[in-house]
Prior knowledge:
Layout: E1 3-9, H1 26-38, E2 44-46, E3 52-54, H2 56-64, E4 69-75, H3 81-95, H4 100-113, H5 119-126, H6 130-137, H7 144-151, H8 157-164, H9 168-179, H10 184-195, E5 204-212, E6 215-224, H11 226-245, H12 250-264
Parallel strand pairs: 2-4
Antiparallel strand pairs: 1-4, 2-3, 5-6
Helix pairs in contact: 1-2, 3-4, 5-6, 8-9, 8-10
Amino acid sequence: MAMTLTRKPLKWFKTDSNQPRKSFDKDELKALGQSLKKKQLVPVLARADGTVTDGNRRVFGAEIEGLEQLDVIISDEPMTPAQIVEIQLVTALHRADLTPYEQFLGFRDWLAQNSGGTAKELAAIIDRDPSTLVRILSLSKCIQAVQQAAAEDKLGPSEWYAISKVPEAEQEAMLAAKLAGASRDQLEQRGRKLRNGEAPGIKVNRLRIPLGQGRSVTIAGSNLGLDDAIEMLQEALKSARKAQGENLDGKTWVAVMQQKAKAGA
């Protein structure tokens, strides 16, 4: 495929919303723009109509710093969506770290654009261990709630891989356990038992329950399961209602509970 190196005004470039990287750090873009002011080491890659196929970060950085032009390699032949995704993915992986979720999106899109393509083939193209791609791509087997948590960086590939190996009906409970503090090993252990026909609850020493608007409830103890959490919350609620009926404030109620706990220890 023939390509031409030239220089184009910034307004000529059309950034591609379909490229793998979905989030950009403004400070990093500013630093990149300042670097481009001194010397542009890597040209932007674009199609003849100005659509950027590699170099969105450079264009954004140049805009922030007020640059007027950038070097660009223009293809004189149309590139398929698969070729564009491949170019973006390979260069993004080598020049700027993608989050695990962004890697998943890039890998998924490459497979979608390359009918019959395999994770092993993609691994060879981007020089990665095939097992790494298998783990990252396993997110596609997870329910939407797990994928959303991955997008928010609340769990990583090793954890969503463990969740992906259990039936969808069990994945929400596995996710809840992870968000409550379960380790990867605990998730894997539960997954193995589920696959063997057992369904024990994950035991943790601390459960943090988000309630929204910055509020949460934390339960601590030894080897706590969901049944333990329910029992403890019911006991605490019963005691709080009794304290309310006695016109106690929250601080006094906690002090009373501490005395009772100490006496019963």
